[in-house]
Design brief:
By secondary structure, the chain is of the alpha/beta class. It has one domain: Rossmann fold. It has eight helices and five strands; from the N terminus they run ααβαββαβαβααα. The protein has helices at residues 2-18, 24-40, 50-65, 97-108, 123-127, 146-152, 163-184, 188-194; strands at residues 43-48, 69-72, 86-90, 112-117, 130-133. The protein has a five-stranded parallel beta sheet, with helices on both faces. It starts with a helix and ends in a 6-residue tail after the last helix.
Length: 200
Amino acid sequence: MKVFRRAYLSLVKYLEAALDFISESELETFLKLLESAHRDGRRIFVVGVGRSGLIGRAFAMRLMHLGFHAYVVGETVTPAARAGDVLIAISGSGRSAAVVAAAEIARSLGVKVVALTSYPDSPLAKIADMVVSIPGRTKVSHEDRWEVRQLLGLHEPLAPLGTQFELVAQVVLDSVIFELMSRLGVEEEDMLELHANVEV
């Protein structure tokens, strides 16, 4: 269990260190876009592949609990997007082909695209109307700069592939939900009323 404990503590340390690399101005712009979409009844679409897709699904679920019209791209019940709607595209590398393709289609429809990525100069980020930069080692990259490695605690690869990006993205999006709860005046009891009650 020595590796388990080291990995656990490493991930917790990484999460703490990553906070200093997350832009409050980017988050504020993102939050204002979400508030506006909520106020105007705009639809929110979320897209991601693999584990990033799972994180996106969790975020869409919580948005729905807050009263947003939130959908996951690719689901059979996902409706058509319209101009003014929002697409949240999650890709650590910013190069996931399916995510970039979805963002391109969304832009052509007049949908506002938000990219959550570790690479603000990636193809996805270049398509996006706004970027929320998420620090993290992705499955196709490594961090070579010594000072960044030290600040982020990247001394050994205890988190494989894109785990660091995915973990930070999950915590960032859950924290966005808490901030939205506060701004929209939504309590947990209100969210519970929108929680699924026909379950298997």
